[in-house]
Amino acid sequence: MPRRSAAAAAFSSGSTAVSRVRPPADLTGPERVVFLATVLACSSDHFQVSDLPLLTAYCRAVVLEKVASSELAAAGYVNAGKPSALLPVLAQATRSLTVHLAAVAIEPRCPTGGEIEAGSCQLLRTSKPDVRGPMR
């Protein structure tokens, strides 16, 4: 049997199909769009089936933050001399985003300097945190 070159050995003769997690059936509309964009922005082996609850919660938080922000922009942050009732919703959505980003081990990476154009941000894969805590 002839010896294989290093270049030939780099390619597996097995299946090259890429398997990614799929959105749950109850995730529809903009939340589904965020899910697909997030999963496709990371490597195919980054998310596991066990990540689905956190990833789904992250997608819902993204949409909630967008809706709260746009409603606040349209209606104003102060109405009749009182802070808008949507301010706590926006704050909670923002906190939830932060927690879920860390839990599913992704972080947004955007170009620095100048203005950020729509669609110029990417998701950067980070190592997953060890949630087991110290062994005792």
What layout of secondary structure does this protein have?
Elements: H1 6-9, H2 29-41, H3 52-75, E1 78-79, E2 82-83, H4 86-103, E3 106-109, E4 122-125
Antiparallel strand pairs: 1-2, 3-4
Helix pairs in contact: 2-3, 3-4
Strand order of the largest sheet: 1-2
> How do the helices and strands follow one another from N- to C-terminus?
HHHEEHEE
**How large is the share of residues in beta strands?**
5-15%
- The separation of the N and C termini measures 53 Å
Share of residues in helices = 40-55%
Count every beta strand, where a strand is a DSSP E run of 2 or more residues: 4
Please count the helical segments: 4
Instruction: Label the overall shape.
Output: elongated
- Summarize the biggest pleated sheet: 2 strands, antiparallel
Going by helix content, strand content and strand pairing, the class is mainly alpha
- Evaluate the radius of gyration: 20 Å
Salient structural properties:
136 residues; two-stranded antiparallel ribbon; mainly alpha; two-stranded antiparallel sheet; elongated
Kindly describe this structure.
The protein has 136 residues and is mainly alpha-helical. The protein has a domain of 62 residues. 43% of the residues lie in helices and 9% in strands. The protein contains four helices and four strands; from the N terminus they run αααββαββ. It has a two-stranded antiparallel ribbon with strand order 1-2. A hairpin with a 2-residue loop joins strand 1 and strand 2. The termini are far apart.
